[in-house]
Specification:
Blueprint lengths: L2 H6 L13 E7 L4 E3 L4 E13 L5 E13 L3 H7 L7 E14 L5 E16 L20
Parallel strand pairs: 4-6
Antiparallel strand pairs: 1-3, 1-5, 2-3, 3-4, 5-6
Length: 142
């Protein structure tokens, strides 16, 4: 039997075939809150997406992401529980989705990122997009 045939039958070959790693950076849209009897920190970030429209003009669109950090992850939790609206953070974690029924009676999917790394890139800035708004094209984090 050749080495090629031996390697093809090893059970670890597909161990990391599928990965679920998510990295995001954005501004908190409101202060982080503790949930689950203080076992989790929950917050929401806004990220800015820039694109060219059909006239070649730069447009901005905000995307929003729900983040949860477990208190079992001491370093990430220590940062997450103290985050304030406007803080600029980087997170790394795994996305999880679940099916939900909307008030209107439709099925929808809710996605939450379970972060295992949280880095405070910069403390609160003055300009934070409200839900449904984007940062100005010229704005840079303070």
């Amino acid at each position: 039997m050749s080495n090629t045939e031996t390697n093809e039958t090893q059970p670890t070959e597909n161990l990391f075939a599928d990965t679920n790693i998510s990295m995001k950076s954005g501004h908190l849209v409101k202060d982080a809150e503790l949930i689950g009897d203080g076992k989790f920190a929950k917050f929401r970030i806004a990220t800015n997406k820039e694109f060219l429209d059909s006239q070649g003009q730069v447009q901005n669109m905000a995307n929003y992401f729900n983040i949860i950090v477990s208190s079992n992850l001491k370093d990430a939790f220590a940062i997450a529980q103290n985050l304030k609206k406007g803080d600029w953070v980087y997170i790394k974690g795994e996305d999880s989705s679940r099916s939900i029924d909307t008030v209107e009676g439709y099925k929808d999917t809710a996605v939450t990122t379970f972060a295992y790394k949280v880095v405070l890139k910069k403390e609160k800035t003055e300009q934070v997009p409200e839900e449904g708004q984007a940062l100005e094209a010229n704005s840079q984090p303070a």
